[in-house]
Amino acid sequence: MDSRQVSRREFVQGAAATAAGMAVGAALAASAGRAEAAPATAPAPDPRKTRSYNENMEYRCLGRTGLMLSAVSMGGHWKCIPFSHGSEDFKKNRREVISAALDHGINYVDACSSGEVMVYAEALGRRREQIYFGFDWHGGRDPQITGSLEKMKQQLDEGLQAAKLEYVDVWRVTLREQVTRNTEQEIEAVAAALEWGKKTGKARATGLSTHHRAWIAEAVSKYPSFEVIITPYAAGSKEKPAGSMFDAIRKHNVGLIGIKPFASGTLFGSGGTPDSPTKEEDDERARMAIRYVLCCDVLTATIPGLITVDQVKNVAAAVQERRRFDRAEAARYEALTDRMWADLPANYQWLRQWEWV
What we know:
The protein is an alpha/beta fold. The protein has ten helices and ten strands. The chain has a single domain (about 5-355), classed as NADP-dependent oxidoreductase domain (TIM Barrel). It has helices spanning about 90-105, 115-125, 145, 150-165, 185-200, 215-220, 245-250, 280-295, 310-320, 325-340; strands at about 60, 70, 75, 110, 130-135, 170-175, 205-210, 230, 255-260, 300. It has an eight-stranded parallel sheet with strand order 3-4-5-6-7-8-9-10. The chain has a two-stranded antiparallel sheet with strand order 1-2.
């Protein structure tokens, strides 16, 4: 079987349907998803008709939205980039990286702040229609905005106008994260705003970015406008044998986009610094992590931050590699992720909560 077919989910309107995940080796078998596929009632979208299709990339359906995203997509952050934000070198880097991504079949970028939206709208230029644009402007962290339906509407309109976008493909509101939760009033306003955004055609799909794993299952069951969830799924994350968040994701056919695949660079000897003396080793670790996370049957896409053209080429190459680890690779990978969890910096200790999802 072509390894790029592993974990591809069929799109089914109004029902969940998943394909069984492939195990990554005996030592890490628990990482594979336990699909409970429902009978297909509609054909899957043709990936060849998706944006920036490349035969060497894998595409997966973003839940019930019908959008076909590249299994490896692009996070909006630019940590460790060696240029000042807004400088000509910075702008040139973002143009080159986004262009390389499109050329390799990467067709989703997740811009989670007004600054990122502006950067990628400018970097894309006339290639806007070649990518699915994930959009958040001010996010759900400001209670003065999040608690008001009208202000939520205004921030979408403001962002579209400022970035010269006619619409966004995924309006994904970033909620407050691992410490402080949004109020019920704020959640209700966000859900109503997302529904409005989709009804007006200003957003093709809608959802949230949140680190509140326990709350996610409840939220996707209650609010139909939460079609997409953007949340951590790291190099060492595994599905809980029972009581997993993934049960609700499958049941409601929600699109899942995984952030922090490299644990914010902790997986690497360089900490994520490009062109370091450990580049060759770090590139191999990155490919192993991509192979691993793509075995998760509920994951539509993983979105590493990419800051060089070489990094784009490296993660795209990982899609072509076999998913199953041999015994030696499985043992090595387990040791790498054990060290990764142990080395998380103080401001990323919260990510340990995502070892078992």
